[in-house]
Amino acid sequence: MSASSPTPTLTRADYISADVFELERRRIFHGGWFFVGHVASIPAGSSRVLDVAGEQVIVTCTRAGQFHAFANACRHRGAMLVDPTDPTVVAPECGAASIQCPYHAWTYGLDGRLLATPRVDRDDVDRDATGLWAYRADVWNGLVFVSLAHDVAPLREWLVESNPALVGFEHLAIADMALVQRTASSAAANWKIVVENYQECLHCPVVHPELVEVIPHYRTGEVVDAARPDGAVEFLNGANSYMQASTGAAELPLLPGVAPSDEGVYNGTSVFPNLFFDLTASGLVLTTLFPVDPDRTLIVGEYLFAPEVAASSEYDPTDEIAFNELIGAQDIAVCERVQRGVASRAFTTGILTTKDDAVVDFDRQYRSAMDPLAHPFQIT
Ligand code: FES
Ligand SMILES: [Fe+2]
Fold this sequence. Notes:
The chain has helices at about 10-15, 20-30, 155-160, 165, 190-200, 205, 210-215, 240-245, 305-310, 320-340, 355-370, and strands at about 5-10, 35-40, 45-50, 55-60, 65-70, 100, 105-110, 115, 135-140, 145, 180-185, 235, 265-270, 275-280, 285-295, 295-305, 350.
């Protein structure tokens, strides 16, 4: 029997072209919801400035706990209001009630209202009509998203449509988890290469020798265990963490909200377009992709554990975090090799095999999101 014709990967241009990246900014990153962080990364009374594919966005949380998103530009003469936040800072300083422009000191509340225009007559400016330019911000189960588009569906509705696997984790109490560490890495690779690498495990026995030791199913090259209905894969010895499986380290407390079916396994999903959601019963890792250029992606890791882990020196998640960072560094190294390879004039498209079926799923979702018919109000 002859082999069925292989499915092609995305094209060379999809991975390297500035024109494609510009369309992605409009149709995907600025056209839908974009994950920005766990709620604890922006505590009440603070703000964080993020780069959403070239657009600087101030995300605030008011003292009353309401999240907002604004353009990082002053309504007076357009000065950048706030310097970008260091991505490795776990949570910015709390307590700032306002944002003051460094140019002429116009001052805005964390809800975007213009509060003060020093040395300018009050009648000169209609303060009520001159709040910060607002984008949308919303929270699902402790995860903060922003949208630069105003015609996008409400967040939960959009998640059900675009990322039903994430909604399957609704039983977790993610907002109650403790954000212990944020890490940042820069990958010289297109964001889609990073996602496609996440979607398959054919590379695991080659690239991740430590990982296949603790999750033996990954030796098969399959990213999920077809024998399980939930998409999870079992840890060696039914462990609840990488360290427990690899060194027999003491068990960390279980995360708030985990179900018995979450124990002894790793489960995860990529959330289109820019989040990897990786769950063990004792730790949740949120990996956010911030596309910078066609060949550059900032990767931010957020490490969440049970509140007891943050509150007591009895627990030390350092090795658990280091294990995840090791796997992440191994992934970045191969993604950078792919970026260099697909830039070759010889590369037109690659080949996706049966065990790459989750890559095929991502590519299909990507092509559909890039379809101009899905964006009837955009000119191109
Ligand atoms: S530009 Fe911001 S106060 Fe003038
Ligand atoms: Fe990997």
